[in-house]
Amino acid sequence: MKKIPLGNTGYKVSRIGFGGIPISRLDHDTAVKVVHGCIELGINFMDTAVAYKDSEIKIGEAISDHEIILATKSQSRDAAGMEKDVKASLSSMKVDFIHLYLLHGVNNPDLLKSVMAKGGALDALKKMKKNGCIGAIGITGHRADVLVDALKTGEFETVQVPYNYIETEPEKELFPLARKLGIGIIAMKPFGGGILENANLSIKYILNQENVVPIPGIQKTEEIQEICSIADGHTALSEIEKKKILQISKELGNDFCRRCGYCMPCPQDIQIIRAMNAKTSIKRLGVKSFIDDKGREFVERIKTCTKCGQCELRCPYNLPIRSNIARNAKYLESVLGQSRN
Ligand code: SF4
Ligand code: SF4
Question: Are residues 149 and 284 in the same domain?
Fold first, then answer.
């Protein structure tokens, strides 16, 4: 697989990286096999996080004996918490050096202020870099405007943001600024969190952006085989593919849930992501996933929403969650009613 420089970090990473969330759902041996499959295909850049359950442990075991550029991240906001997490990551992955450590999920200006303040998480990362425990410092977040402000501070060597052909905001200011400053660009959610089903269109779209490294979450070896064969082939988009992308983008608009989970937890224990995406699930899978007892319980629970609005305050995309799930509750009732008749 072709390799490209990750900004000015000095690292040369494979054109496709590895996103470490899905292996947290696999048993240990299967997860290790999936990572080995990726390494065999030439992937040398692996991204994980303290928050991804045992993903760090599984990756750490799978990469021993391999030269892999490791990236991980923590949601700690103060220096003491961050230092503890970096040490825990080193221990989980059984390494004495992590190439890239990122501040995870810096999604609003207040958070950015707190991680950059004296005694904030950035202080700890700088200290760990000085001590030789980490190689470079990066930042991740869901809002391009907050990340633009972060890059302007000159403290970060990479930036990681959701990016795909329906989430193109970073193309306007964030990517040009990052390129100008020599900051490595990492694209998470290349398939829009599972909404974009055509891997060919999604991967080609990102590979046509200069120096943007996608890190698709991988759960099966076949998935990464398909992605790598797209990356190794002819990646220019045909006119028909461009039209298809426009058509899908138009259909989805901006008002869709990215399945990031920042809105959770809900005090009423409502599974907000599932509630937000109920229509898409029925379109893809039919009503079957809602007609068993658990499905019915889920539908009943949505109706207990008190409209407190806590979820909306946490959604980085400012989605009207309350009205969306109320609308979807009505839709589910009518679909389930029809399936009973
Ligand atoms: S508005 Fe409804 S879904 Fe959102 S947190 Fe409150 S109870 Fe839960
Ligand atoms: S509603 Fe918003 S915060 Fe919740 S999963 Fe969807 S996009 Fe993320």
Answer: no
Tell me how far the alpha carbon of residue 231 lies from the centroid of ligand 1, in angstroms.
41
Nearest to 206 by CA among 220, 223, 192, 222: 192
Q: Which two tokens stand for residue 260?
A: 């990031």
pLDDT for position 176: 98
CA dihedral 4, 15, 21, 60 (to 10 degrees): -60
Cα separation, 271 vs 95, in Å, equals 37
Residue 285 and residue 242 share a domain: no
As a whole number, the mean pLDDT across the chain is 94
**Ligand 1 pocket, mutate which of 274, 305, 325 (most atoms under 8 A from CB):** 305
Q: Tens digit of pLDDT for each residue in 210-220?
A: 999 999 999 99
Residue 222, SS3? helix
pLDDT class for 340, splitting at 50, 70, 90?
low
Both 132 and 9 in a single domain?
A: yes
Pocket of ligand 2 (CB under 6 A): 257-263, 272-273, 276, 315, 317, 319, 321
Task: Retrieve residue 292's tokens.
Answer: 């068993």
Same domain, 233 and 276: no
